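Consortium newsletter contribution from the modelling node. Members have asked for a concrete example of what our holo predictions look like. Here is one, prepared for the zinc ion complex that several groups have been discussing at recent meetings.
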Amino acid sequence: MLPKALKKFADEKNYPILGDSVRCTRYAEPVGFGMQGSFYVVSASVDPNTWNKDLQKEIKTELKKIGTVSYNQKDSIVQMIVKAPLGAEKLHARLEDSADALMQTLARHQVAYRKTCIFCGQGECDDFADQGAACVPAHTSCKADAAEKLMAEVVENETNGNYILAILCALLGGIVGALPSALTILLFETIYAVLFALIPLAAYYGYKLARGKMNGTVPFIIAIAALLDTMVLEVAVQYIWVRQEAPTFPLSTFLSYVFSGEGFPLLLQDAAMPLVFCIVGIAIVWGQINNNNRQIRQKAQQLAQGTTTSTPK
Ligand SMILES: [Zn+2]
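And here is the predicted structure:
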């Protein structure tokens, strides 16, 4: 999602928004604005054949007063982190000035711009796309294909996958997540309640590892697996304590006591705090699962929407 301040900037300047970046249409070249964390970044997509380490050093020094220049080798993107002043008006002017400074410096050093599509690597691009909050050349058709693929991924996530195996892996993952809690209880006789939040996270990890179906039921599965694992952990720890006192105490006798009308309320009482923290972890996982598919869907929509009409050189 594009941060609000950048959206405001784009609206005011009438610049098109491409997913996480804003394209500076004052230039025909792939140059744009984005954010990395809380920093504003001006970036240009360059031809890697016209870029090298010495040049990078030189340009970095030249632009030192305006911002910090770095180079993303993977996507051949020159980025400059800009110090952002307070107030929209000043910020907008600073962003524009920074883009001009970057473009002028690149031109002076005869840096050429990327001309190949970020998706297929072919030339004759007719569009721009967003890549890591930077603006890069693309084909309209490649963008549409990428959007379609992402949507297919959401559908695939929601409909395919093996439930049974994934649920088992969620339970196993939860037990792995319970180990830190079990060890601190047994070794240090201390309960770090916050460690219990690891149980649902590990259960979710197990579920994902087994490529379980990603739909609305997942949070419930993870919640049940995590709560079960928390109870298993409680019972196991209690039994280990009993065995330390009475080394021959049979497990079956212990279990029938724990799950009897007398023992169960005591178990629940002991497990209350861990369960609360386990629920905190469940809430985190819940949010993550919902975000995951929503984000992919949003990205696909952004790709489909962010089509511009201007043609790069
Ligand atoms: Zn393409």
